[in-house]
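For this section, I looked closely at a protein sequence along with its fold in token form, which I now present.
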Amino acid sequence: MDFPNNSDNDSSYKNLYKSSAPTDSRPTNQFAVASLAMGILTIVTTVLCTVFLPFLFSGLSIIFAVLSKGRNKNMEINARTGIITSLIGFFLNIIIVAGSFYLVFTVPEYKEQLNQVYEQVYGESFDEVWKDTIESVQ
């Protein structure tokens, strides 16, 4: 039985272990992936009704997307998707927070619920704290 030695330049043995599937030679840009992950986290935290985390994740997503660009003229698809998802989550969060404030300060039933919960937690109603805050500012 013949075994090829290392000095043998027979191409049939070299081609035996080569993959026939095409490979992408571009390296993955980690900042673009981080931007996409932060954009997804922005939407998830918005849906979970947190107030501050969507703003944090949205800002990080945009920063990572800009950093991923480097000196290239075009931004990668992951970075663009990260920016889009973070902006969707950001503006959705603003709408939810603004709508909540609007409902609490305009609908008497919601304001009464806020007063009850605030009094259970802090021992005084929200209206009393709000009046004290306004008076201290003036």
The mean pLDDT is 85. The CA atoms of residues 32 and 76 lie 7 Å apart. The chain is about 70% helix and 0% strand.
